[in-house]
Amino acid sequence: MNTSIQKIVLVTGANRGIGFEVCRQLGELGYHIFLSARDNQKGNEAVEKLRAEKLTVDFIHMNVADEESIKKAVKEFGKRSIKLDVLINNAAILGDSEIEKMPTEELMNVLKTNSIGAFIVIREFLPFMDKESRIINVSSGAGALHDMGNYAPAYSISKATLNAITKQFAAALKRKRIMVNSVCPGWVRTDMGGWSAPRSVKKGTETIVWLATEAPQNKSGLFWRDKKVIDW
Questions:
Q1: Given 99, 112, 114, 166, which is the most exposed site by the fewest CB atoms within 10 A?
Q2: Is residue 45 within 8 Å of 15, Cβ to Cβ?
Q3: Reading across the β-sheet that carries 223-225, which strands appear in turn?
Q4: Residue 68, φ and ψ in degrees, nearest 5
Q5: Closest Cα partner for 28 from 197, 232, 202, 224?
Q6: pLDDT greater than 90 at residue 5
């Protein structure tokens, strides 16, 4: 298919789990997928798997915890002179130290990947986006302040920060009609979520794909789970 008439999607942290399944589902809907990962080999292997399913997929190397890596990815994307219709910030790491004993480096690393990285990715890729574009930040119920406990403190703090980034960009980009939302996929059976999690990867990606394709364009600056708005 000709990329000039296809909608273009960029997904970060997409070589496995939720990100990979989002790429597959959107690719099956006819989108041109740019799959991003920090590991070149794993990223290219993921691309080949999707191409074997006859999907239109390209790899862009990007470590979202490294601003220079993000900027290199932007330059690579820019060579194609195309619009970015959907940006999905999916890349994330967990961190499991108790907050009383958490090394500063651990908190900083999780924040750089899960929230600061997403902020830089949005800022740097915005020039390729215009009205009707969509930005989806894959967050977590662990980042909801209204009932936050002590689960995975670095991760929870980073997702609360990501939600604040969502609100800020949604307000700033409203006049440009660029839709920005956070989504909680639920507890999903992935390498991060563990294999005892109750949700399949397909179920976990459902609302992300919906926000990327069918959700009303004016539904922006919101936090979603199962296609319903949830509390911050």
A1: 99
A2: yes
A3: 57-61, 32-37, 8-11, 86-89, 134-138, 179-183, 223-225, 228-229
A4: -65, -35
A5: 202
A6: no
φ, ψ of residue 66 to 5 degrees: the values are -125, 110
Which of 85, 81, 82, 72 lies closest to 36, judged by CA?
72
Contact 172, 220 (CB under 8 A): no
- What pLDDT score does 199 carry? 76
Q: 15-43 pLDDT, tens per residue?
A: 999 999 999 999 999 999 999 999 999 99
Q: How far apart are the first and last CA of the chain?
A: 40
Q: Does residue 155 have an active-site annotation?
A: yes
Model pLDDT, residue 2 = 41
Cα radius of gyration rounded to whole Å, the chain: 16
